[in-house]
Amino acid sequence: MVEWTGVRYADGPTVEVETWIGAPPERVWGIVSDIGAMPGMSPELQSVAWCDGGAGEPAVGRGFTGTNRHPAMGEWTTTSYVIACDAPRTFAWAVTDPEHPSATWRFTLEPRDGGTVLRQWMRMGPAPSGLSIAIERMPDKEQKIVFVRLREHEKAMTATVAAIKEKAERG
Predict the structure, then answer these.
(1) Which fold has domain 9-170?
(2) Do the Cβ atoms of 43 and 159 come closer than 8 Å?
(3) 2: pLDDT confidence band, cut at 50, 70 and 90?
(4) Which of 32, 36, 53, 93 has the smallest count of CB within 10 Å of its CB?
(5) What is the 3-state secondary structure (H, E, C) of 99-116?
(6) Rounded to whole angstroms, how far apart are CA atoms 34 and 21?
(7) What are the residue boundaries of the structural domains of the chain, listed by start?
(8) β-strands 115-124, 45-50: how paired?
(9) pTM higher than 0.85 for the full model?
(10) pLDDT band with cut points at 50, 70 and 90 for residue 6
């Protein structure tokens, strides 16, 4: 299931994907909340590390850096902060600033039919991001730029939840 709202960056456009996983929420939670495992499941995310240098469990307020790579945008590193950590239901983080993020990402887990419905959701903005540079250079193409990036996120998120599903069902 994919939902998009807004076509301009300032509207905070969103995208969401979901899948059913034949594993209990507790097993799925162990995967989605393990930030160190995400680079192997996301096509764009290259590496992740907790800012405090430690390992262990995520907690609200805890920060991590993530390095991403995109063919058109190159490589960049951001700092994100956990804004929701409710095992085994919700894990979310805000990119750059929890109060005014450049993006917000969230996994939600719902028990259903002996397994788990996993949803991954993201919202662009409201703070500027790397996409803002392209929009500033070509303001007449903003809707197309945002639409293309949402499609890229949809494709990447679909691959991520499929990888999580495969790992959780494998046990």
Answers:
(1) Alpha-D-Glucose-1,6-Bisphosphate; Chain A, domain 4 (3.30.530)
(2) yes
(3) very low
(4) 53
(5) CCCCEEEEEEEEEECCEE
(6) 17
(7) 9-170
(8) unpaired
(9) yes
(10) low
